[in-house]
DNA sequence: GTCTATACGAGGATAGAC
DNA sequence: GTCTATCCTCGTATAGAC
């Protein structure tokens, strides 16, 4: 289910698809799960756990700004899209309260990590003193999510990488601006 | 069809939905259109035309950086999502060559306008001389597209606005950095 | 041009045998 | 626990009458 959720989204994935990919019969599936909904909630929860775990660079070693740049520069399969962010455009998924909660929580966790790193960077003088950590966190998370959109629109990885490079350049410019402050 | 494409996406919209919203019978619809596919292509093409028309501030009056900021700050209904970018996550839409072309072309047009404005801003000394217009164009387009994703994840407008504010702040920082160059 | 009738497969799930 | 049979609705489209 996790795979199909990534490839096709929630609405476009049928229980039959899941069974056939898992190689099990109907009886088995409906014995262990109540239906498509539960299948999706459990799969997406696991995926979200993985995703937030992958954000470790933000809490790792190095100066705060270095950590932010390292996380931004992580390889991302642009044309495949974000396994969590994807749900955001799926009408049935966004409508479903449980699924939406899983997605929202995952993003909240990510944004929290961003905010911490940004706050540290401001304190270290690596970013301008008047930087709003909450705003910048959302900007950088949006660059990544938007990078997926642009990459999928063209069916190429390049737009994702370009978007990230542009963000890295802006962060560098912000650092030189911060240095001129004192 | 354009409305439903926005609200539910391509896969989740059925010809029946379209007929019922338009208040026409089956015969009428299939008399004027070959089917769901053509309906979507024509609707999305019209929407894309509107969208690129709305990007006029990028070519308008004022200094290049001002124009960029003005366009970024345009009001955007975050929780509704982007009518064009949305298609990007729709498995059936991205798979469809014609629909994907419409989406890709719309983004290419937008990115072109961004690149021109950015190039002008660099020439005017409003952005650092080593700015890559292609990269930054994709970064800023990604902020908007990603802003939609974050807003929909929470079902609130606020993340979109925050992401844009953060981008505006980064552009300002880049301008002060550019001023220190000479 | 527009309507109603019809077709057939897929989606989602239940029933009950083994 | 797993399998097959079965159910009903929806999606997508065609046929043919008015």
TrEMBL record, chains A, B:
One of its GO terms (molecular function) is DNA binding. InterPro entries: Homeodomain-like_sf, HTH_TetR, Tet_transcr_reg_TetR-rel_C_sf, TetR_C. Gene3D superfamilies: Tetracycline Repressor, domain 2 (1.10.357.10). Transmembrane segments: none annotated. The keyword Cell membrane does not apply. This is DNA-binding transcriptional regulator, AcrR family. The keyword Plastid does not apply. Keywords: DNA-binding, Transcription, Transcription regulation.
């Amino acid at each position: 289910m996790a795979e199909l959720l990534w490839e096709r989204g929630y609405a476009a994935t049928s229980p039959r698809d899941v069974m056939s990919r898992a190689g099990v019969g109907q009886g088995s599936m409906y014995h262990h799960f109540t239906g498509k909904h539960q299948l999706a909630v459990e799969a997406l929860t696991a995926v979200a756990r993985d995703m937030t775990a992958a954000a470790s660079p933000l809490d790792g070693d190095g100066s705060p700004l270095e950590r932010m740049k390292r996380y931004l520069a992580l390889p991302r399969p642009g044309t495949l899209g974000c396994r969590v962010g994807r749900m955001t455009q799926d009408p049935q998924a966004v409508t479903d309260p449980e699924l939406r909660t899983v997605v929202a929580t995952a993003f909240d966790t990510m944004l929290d990590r961003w905010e911490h790193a940004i706050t540290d960077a401001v304190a270290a003088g690596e970013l301008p003193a008047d930087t709003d950590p909450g705003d910048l966190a959302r900007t950088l998370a949006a660059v990544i999510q938007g990078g997926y959109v642009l990459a999928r629109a063209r069916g190429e990885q390049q737009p994702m990488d370009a978007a990230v490079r542009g963000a890295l350049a802006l962060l560098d410019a912000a650092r030189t601006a911060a240095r001129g402050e004192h």
